[in-house]
Amino acid sequence: MSRNHTWKFFRAGGFDQVRLDTGADLMALDQLDQKLWVALACPTTGLEFDKATLALIDTDKDGRIRATEVIAATQWAGSCLKNPDELLKSSPALPLAAFNDATPEGKQLLASAKQILATLKKADATAVTVEDASQVAEKFVETVLNGDGIIIPETAKDDATKQVINDIIACLGSDVDRSGKPGINQARVDQFFADAQAFSDWHKKAEADTAVLPLGDATAGAAAAVKAVQTKVDDYFTRCRLAAFDPRASNALNREEKDYLAFAAKDLTITNAEIAGFPLARVEAGRPLPLTHSVNPAWADAIAKFQNDAVKPLLGDKNALTEADWGELLAKLGPYEGWSAGLAGGSVAKLGRDRVRQVLASTAKDTLTKLIAEDKSLEPQFTSIAAVEKLARYHRDLYKLLNNFVSFRDFYGRKDKAIFQAGTLYLDQRSCDLCLTVEDGARHALLAGLSGTYLAYCDCVRKATGEKLQIVAAFTSGDSDNLMVGRNGIFYDRKGRDWDATITKIIENPISIPQAFWAPYKKVVRMIEEQVAKRAAAADAAATQKLELTATTVVNVDPTKPPPPPAPQPPKTKMDTGTLAAIGLVLTTLLAALGGIFGAIAKLPPWQVPLAILGILLAISLPSMLLAWLKLRRRNLGPILDANGWAVNAKAKMNVPFGGSLTGVAALPPGSQRDLVDPFAEQKSPWPKIIVLVILVGLVVRLAYLALDKKGYINDWSNGWLGDPRPVKAEKAAPAAPTEAPAKPAETAK
Description:
Blueprint: E1 9-12, E2 15-18, H1 23-27, E3 39-43, H2 51-57, E4 64-66, H3 67-79, E5 93-95, H4 104-119, E6 127-129, H5 130-141, H6 159-172, E7 175-176, E8 182-183, H7 186-207, H8 219-245, H9 250-253, H10 257-264, H11 273-276, E9 289-290, H12 300-315, E10 320-321, H13 323-341, H14 353-361, H15 364-376, H16 379-402, H17 409-413, E11 423-427, E12 430-432, E13 435-437, H18 441-448, E14 454-462, E15 467-475, E16 488-493, E17 498-507, H19 513-555, H20 577-602, H21 609-632, H22 638-642, E18 647-648, H23 656-662, E19 663-665, H24 687-710, H25 713-717
Antiparallel strand pairs: 1-2, 3-4, 3-18, 5-6, 7-8, 9-10, 11-12, 11-16, 12-19, 13-15, 14-15, 14-17, 16-17
Helix pairs in contact: 3-16, 4-16, 5-16, 7-14, 7-15, 8-12, 8-13, 12-13, 19-21
């Protein structure tokens, strides 16, 4: 294939995404720079995608799908088909004519596909489905010989061989057969028989030396009885030596009386730890250890077994044991202890010497080896059937994965849901399509909060079955006024099942521009409501306290005593002049500001008044809207998916138009009829309308006044008491008459 493949891209989410429109595009994925892939890895869980297909793509079985694994799966599937364009059909039925029989692998796959159909008695079928291949594979797996090189007890043809298989499993553990049952492979068979031979040879060493097994097979029991009491016996004889060294130590070595007082008042049993910690018997210089009487009751049974299994067979019938006897006893068992420490083939020791030698003397090893080889010979047949199922799954599912991994075509195309979309949440008259399953909401929120999206985490439960689920839903349209922790809704998963959903955590971010426009006014209203509620609560508490005090006084009054004089009323406090001045200043400033605003509006031409009011509203709401717009244009899907284990490789933005498509807001169907008469509607107070009407009338009067005053009518009608005089148009001044030249004085007579 040419290494200069020409790619096509489409733009969505604020970045370029590759188009996979042809089989050639799929086969050239290894040439596409991975910097242009939308995702580089995704988990195999929490996706609305066939888990068996994901398991096949996940070749290293680490629970993650990576770009290299996607490329390998695509190229293998394309090479097994005559035309890779077949993968774009995403059909559950794989036509037999599509197999690439020009290659050995393709020819083998075609033969296996025909064998599958023949097994199912569909020899005339022209296509094989995932269900066909799975059904035959399951039947093959359930057989005792299924090509995995592991045999199970049911594989054996006789009880003796079956018992050997069970013995190997008991000693060395098991391997899991394709059927899911425990079995063994050739490595375990070889190890078992090697250990069995070593164990048998180890026993032969002891059998050849009488000093190793002085009591024969009973030597092991004697050694065990000695080992059980050896520490306490050594302790006893050491104490006796100390008592012989210094008689003053006897009382301390036998424990003082106060040691008994510490637990004497308790309900004691023979196994009490306090008793077991005392010496085996009373310590005296040179005193033998009694074996039948005066023994620490916590050790009486162990000493009795010691006497019966070791002392009596090796030293004779003794009721007491001297330190010399104890040394002799240990010496006689010393060779056994040395031999026992060199145990070989210990993994089969639990079977015992006789059983091990019985297995070694049989033909079990050869029989098991032949069964494993017979099972292994069927591996190509199973592998071929599994490969047909794998190809059928890739033919059905692979193209969809590519459109949700290499690009997010399904998500931004809005025709099919993306594989990470778990379903739809209905809550607060909205439907949220961007819902993802999460395992740990608190942990997910740490990263998902960086997406700039309003997120609601919900616990979902189906009470009928007890199933539980946790999701996160993105609200991308409407407002957040009625969204709060504890609100309930219904979540529909991709299978159409409904779940009871309850909001448990919210990450707040802007939802829409209209919400941001009204946010300042809602904050003011909310603040006023909170202040009114606080004052009402304080007044209610004061009234309740006063009522309780009065009732207490009436109940506790003594009728024999004259009523007490009324308590002097505290003088009425006069309002502080400073407070009054401050209030007056605030009111004056507020009224002056409002007057200035309305005065400025009133001076405008009528057609500019609505524009001025709109400008005031924008001045209040514009900062909130601008901040919301900046955040909404940066909404990013990446952190939401990354928090779920994805490796998103692009800034997958969710702008305002696209976000609006992800959340549906309740709207009446076209052509619906509405009855606006609500018989239970609250009676509305007329005062708000009256106030608005007065304000409008005032504005109209003010505008009329200014218009008339501008022309001087107000001044004329009030005889100069109000308004400005009528403006007088300046007349042009007449040109000044030329001044006559002064008469010249008469010339003096000459």
